[in-house]
Amino acid sequence: MFRRMYITVASLLIVSTGLLLVLVGLAVYRELTNDVARDAEQAMVDAVPAVERALTESVYRDGLGPPVRDDLGNTIFYYAVGPAATAHSPHAPVPFSVVHGEAVLKHFVTFTYDNEPYRLYTVVVPDPTLAPTLIQTANQGSRASLPVGGLLVADALDQAVRGIADPSPLSPTKSTVVLYMYCLITQERSMLTHTLHLMELIGGAGLLLAVAGDLVLARRLVQPAFQTWAAYQEAVLELSHELQTPIATASAMLANRAVPEDAANDIRRELDRASKMISDMLYLSKLRSGLVDDPPEPVAVSDLTLEIAERYTPVAKAEGIELRGQAEEGLYVYTSQSEWERLVSTLFKNVIDHAKRPSTAVWSLYRRGQWVVLTVENDVAPQAANARRAPERGVGLQIVERLVHRMRGHLHWDADHLRFFIELQVPLLRPH
């Protein structure tokens, strides 16, 4: 019992500690991921003016021009689509068609190309290369008259741009440029992955330490209950021995004094009943504490039940009770022989003590699916009709209930002033 209690308490502590560590770790990692992404996104937003200056100050042909970096040192790649020309950064690792397909205006998007992760930011900015007079020239379709600092046409890129049916939000106007800015985030992902592995390592070590602490704490929590139960067991043992002394003394005094035979028999019967009740209380206490010594094994309950019934049949007959029944052959239960004998004997003794005289008590042992079922039914003695509590529901049936529980079975009884019926089911064991 206390082993199960200790395992339960320790398991609850370990599971709660593990869940707490996992939740805290996930919260910290999520917050770290959001902070890193937020800083990188802000750095990309802050790099928009630098890209605009690069478009104004440089001449861009295929792959030419100074690079642009953000405040974190990341290289910013971009495509700039204007009203009359297109341009791109000195190095364009991702084709424009892929970038355009992932773009969402004024939103950050992460995508993967060629097994490399990228972050993309799309924004519409005023055309940094067009003066008011040049805008008019551009409107007339004279793309060759753009100044040296303007957006020059890169033939391959221009064809790609013209080949895409661009919807309204990402279409440049006469005085604006659609700017597709993206950067490689491999280093960021690598840092987060390394951090996650480090957190897993530290969390695993912390969990092992927490498990050791939880085991010690669970033992300390269970210790008071164990001490209380030990004190209870000791008190029951001492009380039983103390009660046996006056019973033995009363029996000796009864034998040495002139007491009428009928009265002496009644007194001896009650003394024997008290002695057996004390013995039953001690056995019930052992069952409750789980300190029963008999190891379980396959037991042929069919033959054993018939033997016990044969022993109790003449005793019941002497009391005016006919005890009859039958047992199906070949039934096995995983228990101990002493426990099954104690269970059946307690039920038959209960019949003898409380059944109506004369009457017939019926028992039956049979198989029902994957269960072995034992039923006992008898007439109730008239004096039990006005009792506040049915006499059958005493220490004896508590012992039966505990034994059935140890066998992983179920117990059911039904009693009124006329009949008492009890049924128990225990798992059937197939013999090997």
Fold and architecture overview:
- With 432 residues, the chain is α+β, with helices and mostly antiparallel strands.
- Among the domains are: 47-184, no CATH class; 294-427, Heat Shock Protein 90.
- Helices cover 52% and strands 20% of the residues.
- The protein contains 10 helices and 13 strands.
- Strands 1, 2, 3, 4, 5 and 6 form a 6-stranded antiparallel β-sheet that branches.
- It is elongated, with a radius of gyration of 45 Å.
Write down the Rg.
45 Å
How is the biggest beta sheet arranged? 6 strands, antiparallel
**Number of helices, where a helix is a run of at least 4 consecutive DSSP H or I residues:** 10
Provide the structure class: alpha+beta
- Total strands: 13
State the low-pLDDT regions, or none. 59-63, 131-154, 384-393
Percent in helix:
40-55%
Q: How far from one another are the termini? A: 30 Å
- Beta strand %: 15-25%
Anisotropy-based shape? elongated
Question: What is the overall pLDDT average?
Answer: 80
Q: Secondary-structure element sequence?
A: HHEEEHEEHHEHHEHEEHEEHEE
Summarize the helices and strands and which ones pair or pack.
Layout: H1 2-46, H2 48-57, E1 68-69, E2 75-81, E3 86-88, H3 96-102, E4 108-113, E5 116-126, H4 132-139, H5 155-162, E6 176-184, H6 186-256, H7 261-289, E7 297-300, H8 301-318, E8 321-327, E9 332-335, H9 337-354, E10 359-368, E11 371-379, H10 395-406, E12 410-415, E13 419-427
